[in-house]
Please model this.
Amino acid sequence: MFNIMNQAIVIIAECRGGKPSPGTYELMTLAEKIRRAKPLPVKAIVLGDEVEKTSQEIAEATGASVLGIQSPHLKYYSGELYKDLLHQCLPEMNPAFVLVSQTTQGMDFAPGLAVRLGAGSITGVNGMSWDGNNICFSRDAYNGKIVLEMLPLMETTVFTVQPGAFKSMEPETTATPGPVEIRLSTTESRNTKSLGIIRGEQKDTGLAEADVLVAAGRGIGSKENVALIEQLAALFPRSSVAGSRPVCDSGWLEYKKQVGLTGATVSPGLYVACGISGAMAHRVGMQGSGFIVAISTDPNAAIFNIADVCICEDLTTFIPLFMEECKRKKRGPLPEQSK
Ligand SMILES: Cc1cc2nc3c(=O)[nH]c(=O)nc-3n(C[C@H](O)[C@H](O)[C@H](O)COP(=O)(O)OP(=O)(O)OC[C@H]3O[C@@H](n4cnc5c(N)ncnc54)[C@H](O)[C@@H]3O)c2cc1C
Model:
């Protein structure tokens, strides 16, 4: 039987533009929650071609001890190299919990890393509870309709954590900076070489500026019904149309309109979700909206758990009726009604 008390909580930091990503500080929040249940040291690993500044920043903001692994071959992300380098350094840290953000990058390397370490793997974590004995992790299943609760049973478990599920840890200006160690590596990936990252054209999406977003989901049924969503959006000033991933994958809306994990994160005053089930990957992009209205035929749709107004109706029936009612209200009462 292993003794967890000699182990550690290790977060794998993700960096963007030479800075720790917001998700890195969300992992720190989860690490802190675990630490309150099991008082284990919190450590962080930063990988990249220039890691000193980022490692220092994390150590100063969190007080965690940080290992920076610097390699000229890590100018661009390489899943293969991540797995190789982490497999080399993690065993010496004896981690019980390895925390990785559930981003495109994290999902790419975390399960393979778990296999290399002979560890368990729990993906898509969005909650944690502690009953005095066991730490239980939860994740959504079936597009958020049910919640799975899982106990890690292995000596080491690699977790991917849903962005937005835990509040970002505020940097502790009073924390004593943790120790930083930088290791230089010349290891190259054996089978693949990253040539670079080509960024998509950054056109104005209209999503960030909109006060009202009307979002289309797969439930709109066809490209023709995008017109219905546009008409609904047109009722509101400073509004724009957004969409869930299947709608963009189907080519009904451009990708720049996608909201969610791999799309935009938005927080308009009003978000109207039309035919959207509310999968976690969509919710993380819009749950900060001021007021949420959801229209779905499924009374158990997860979007209803976060909506302020839930309309369980066929959107092709409800939206035309709603628009007609708005027009009628705008016209004012009919003469015979005003008596
Ligand atoms: C790595 C990864 C990244 C992802 N990133 C994103 C992302 O950025 N954004 C995103 O949105 N998703 C993302 N997804 C996909 C996500 O997991 C869901 O599959 C997706 O959000 C579901 O889209 P939806 O709600 O439009 O469709 P569905 O889940 O199919 O939901 C359709 C809803 O419409 C309802 N409906 C059907 N007909 C009608 C009708 N006539 N009137 C009213 N309601 C109706 C249904 O009951 C259902 O509730 C990602 C997935 C992965 C694995």
Summary: The CA atoms of residues 80 and 189 lie 6 Å apart. Residues 4-184 form a domain with the Rossmann fold fold (CATH 3.40.50.620). The mean pLDDT is 91.
